[in-house]
Structure formats: structure tokens, C-alpha cells
Amino acid sequence: MSVDVRIPMVLRTLTGGRSVVSAEGGSLQDVITNLDINYFGIGQRLLDEAGLRRFMHVYLNGKDVRLLDGLDTNVAVGDSVCPTALSHTRKGTRFPFGMIRVPHRDEMAARWARPFG
Predict the structure, then answer these.
(1) What is the tens place of the pLDDT at every residue in 100-112?
(2) Which residue in 28, 102, 105, 117 is a FRET match for 42, CA 20 to 30 A apart?
(3) Which residues span the domain enclosing 97?
């Protein structure tokens, strides 16, 4: 079964710059294995010995697979898989689209230190 996989910017070097690729598989594990065969290195970025990497979230049709069956989640023809990488920066945390960045504590202190007026 073919599913569309939306590739985040940090992994596009492995797909030759392509933002959407197709992959075959009956479960999410099969899809990731197929991706790794076609685009070597993606599997290492998404998975570790325990399963999905701690800061990698994978969404199937907009739902987090950790809340479904994890890597055993079944996929169907036409489904959309979207892996996202969360990263921590000095100025706060960057989240997937639609979420708000949390300000860094120094940024908050600077806001409160300003005089009112």
C-alpha cells in the first residue's frame, strides 16, 4: 500500500530535497523500513533501539502515532505520514506547526524589567 510521507526540512537532504515521497507498507514500521531502503539514513534518524526517537514525533493523518499503536499502527492507501523533529534552542522550544513557542526565561525577565507606561 502506498502512502505519502511529508519530509521535514531537517531530513530533506536524505531525499534529494523532496518534501513529499511515497512509501510502501502495511504498518508504520514497514513504511519506515521502505523509506530507509529508498532513502538511506532516514531510518536511523527516526528510530533507535527502543523505537521512535525521543524527539521525533510521527503523525498519521494528523494523529500522533504514540497515541495509536506506535510503530504497529496500520496504514492504508492514501494515508499521510508526517514525521516531525522537535529541537530545543536557546530562546525557547520550537514546536511543530500550529503550536506556540515558549519564551526563554531571560526573555521573560526582560519583559518584566521594563517600566510600565
Answers:
(1) 455 555 655 555 5
(2) 102
(3) 88-117
